[in-house]
């Protein structure tokens, strides 16, 4: 009996030590402790555990270098344009000149302390809160890592500007999560800043469910301690890739919840092709009374989201055998909300296989009355020729005109920015204003936004270079008449042109 109990005891101790120490002591340190203590059984257990972790992480494809993934976001106002690409951000005047940067994203938290200051891990978001005339900046922080292995806790870093000047001081915050808060997407709403995250378990990186979070906007704008309200939806692992609604234009009716959406393909096990909507009501006076209700299921026209069996290498480009990720398994940012007074609407898009032969096109939707009885008001798939169109972003202006910007590529055309549009008077489901292009520039997740002076111009931002080259340029392009804003810069290290001030706020 003793022969059985002793190994069992050692295994239990091994597992306990690994879980308790691994997030605080790196693997080489733990290994040296085991060897110094002459504990070959612990050394063996550690080796087997690392092998299990590596196998799991490789299967989920999460062993990525954030610096090699193109994750650009930007926002335009009447006076500034702020762009954050991967690990660096820059501030431009709307008229074109570079005002600050490019600088590491983590410099926003200089002097703040903790992982948000010490780390610069990217997955950034830039938003402009037009209701308050303030800037919102965020990225995540992963301080506990050994090579490609990630350990809890994980952090979301948020900064809200104290003035309309994005080069000025910020109120800064740091929030802790026990699961990896991957793919964070935010939306501005009158009662909060809302976030959706795809969650992964610490260490083994198994998918661990959708997370939805609300942050206390009023407290953040005032620089006060700000709570978060967090729903972990891990009880249903079919949920993932949600987007929160992001407000443009007038505020929604008083008391409106924030809306979250997810797209489902019947080819991946769902009962039908559909969009699901949820309503997130944050109660800051009594957080325990907050609710996340739904889903409200909206049937949509049939589609196939399976591009290249969801492999990362899918979209062809000329001059190389390297292909590009279609990212066709989820909605594309943003889920834009607009209140027209007579009605309110959400617009969103995702990538689909248009012919069963891995030909990428953009499926877009306008959803009306999300706060009452939601309905698909119009939808369409844009794929007018043999080019691939994917990873779009849709927005509607104050007149009801809609634009969709997207990537385009093919065997004979380098990855480029294109955009298509419709006037409010065009037939439903049609992007009747055609397809326009710029073969010299490339985008990824480039959300069109309102020109702040008129709210009737659609803007987008393009970054990148053909064939995956690291250099990039920035261009602001005005539509629908094609006039341009003069904003262009190379993505290089330059000295800041203004001294940025930050104030410590917890």
What would you report as the Rg, rounded to the nearest angstrom?
23 Å
CATH-derived topology of the largest domain: Methylamine Dehydrogenase, Chain H
Instruction: Please count the helical segments.
Output: 5
Beta-strand residue fraction: 35-45%
State the major sheet.
8 strands, mixed
List keywords for this structure.
506 residues, mainly beta, Methylamine Dehydrogenase, Chain H, 2 domains, eight-stranded mixed sheet, four-stranded antiparallel sheet, 30 strands, 12% helix, disordered N terminus, disordered C terminus
What is this structure, in a nutshell?
This protein is mainly beta. The protein is 12% helix and 40% strand.
Structure overview:
By secondary structure, the chain is mainly β. It folds into two domains: 2-56; 61-234 and 242-483, Methylamine Dehydrogenase, Chain H (7 Propeller), CATH 2.130.10. Helix content is 12%, strand content 40%. The chain contains five helices and 30 strands. It has helices at 2-21, 27-36, 40-60, 115-118, 217-222; strands at 72-76, 80-85, 88-93, 98-104, 125-129, 134-141, 145-146, 149-150, 154-161, 170-177, 180-189, 192-200, 207-215, 228-232, 243-248, 258-264, 274-281, 291-299, 332-339, 344-353, 360-368, 375-382, 388-396, 402-410, 413-422, 435-438, 449-450, 458-462, 475-479, 484-485. The strands form seven sheets. The chain has an eight-stranded mixed sheet, with no helix packed on it. Strands 1-2-3-4 form a four-stranded antiparallel sheet, with no helix packed on it. A hairpin with a 3-residue loop joins strand 1 and strand 2 (80-85).
């Amino acid at each position: 009996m003793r022969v059985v109990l002793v190994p069992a005891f050692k295994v239990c101790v091994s597992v306990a030590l690994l879980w308790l120490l691994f997030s605080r002591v790196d693997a080489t340190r733990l290994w040296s402790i085991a060897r110094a203590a002459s504990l070959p059984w612990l050394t063996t257990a550690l080796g087997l555990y690392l092998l299990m972790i590596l196998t799991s992480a490789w299967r989920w494809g999460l062993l990525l270098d954030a610096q090699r993934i193109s994750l650009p976001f930007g926002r335009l106002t009447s006076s500034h344009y702020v762009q954050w690409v991967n690990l660096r951000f820059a501030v431009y005047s709307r008229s074109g000149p570079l005002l600050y940067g490019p600088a590491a994203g983590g410099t926003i938290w200089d002097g703040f302390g903790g992982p948000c200051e010490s780390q610069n891990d990217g997955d950034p978001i830039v938003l402009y809160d037009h209701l308050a005339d303030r800037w919102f900046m965020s990225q995540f922080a992963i301080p506990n890592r050994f090579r490609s292995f990630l350990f809890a806790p994980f952090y979301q870093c948020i900064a809200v500007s104290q003035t309309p000047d994005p080069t000025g001081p910020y109120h800064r915050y740091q929030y802790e999560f026990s699961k990896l808060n991957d793919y964070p997407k935010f939306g501005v709403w009158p009662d909060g800043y809302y976030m959706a995250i795809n969650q992964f378990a610490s260490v083994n990186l198994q998918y661990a469910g959708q997370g939805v979070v609300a942050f206390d906007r009023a407290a953040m704008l005032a620089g006060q301690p700000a709570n978060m309200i967090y729903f972990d939806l891990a009880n249903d692992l079919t949920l993932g890739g949600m987007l929160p609604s992001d407000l443009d234009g007038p505020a929604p009716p008083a008391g409106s919840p924030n809306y979250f959406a997810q797209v489902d393909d019947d080819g991946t096990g769902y009962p039908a092709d559909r969009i699901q909507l949820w309503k997130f009501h944050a109660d800051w006076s009594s957080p325990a009374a907050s609710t996340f209700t739904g889903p409200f299921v909206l049937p949509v026209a049939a589609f196939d989201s399976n591009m290249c069996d969801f492999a990362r290498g899918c979209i062809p480009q000329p001059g190389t055998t390297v292909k590009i990720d279609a990212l066709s398994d989820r909605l594309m940012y943003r889920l834009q909300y607009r209140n027209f007074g007579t009605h309110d609407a959400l617009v969103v898009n995702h990538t689909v296989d248009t012919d069963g032969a891995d030909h990428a096109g953009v499926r877009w939707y306008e959803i009306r009355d999300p706060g009452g009885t939601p309905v698909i008001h119009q939808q369409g798939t844009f794929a007018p020729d043999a080019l691939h169109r994917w990873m779009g972003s849709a927005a509607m202006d104050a007149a009801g005109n809609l634009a969709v910007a997207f990537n385009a590529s093919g065997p004979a055309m380098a990855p480029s920015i294109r955009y298509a549009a419709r006037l409010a008077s065009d037939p439903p489901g049609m992007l009747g204003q055609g397809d326009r292009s710029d073969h010299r520039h490339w985008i990824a997740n480039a959300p069109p936004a309102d020109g702040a002076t008129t709210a009737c111009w659609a803007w987008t931002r393009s970054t990148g270079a053909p064939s995956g080259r690291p250099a990039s340029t920035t261009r602001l392009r005005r539509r629908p008449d094609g006039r341009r804003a003069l904003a262009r810069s190379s993505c290089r290290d330059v000295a800041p042109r203004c001294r940025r001030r930050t104030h410590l706020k917890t």
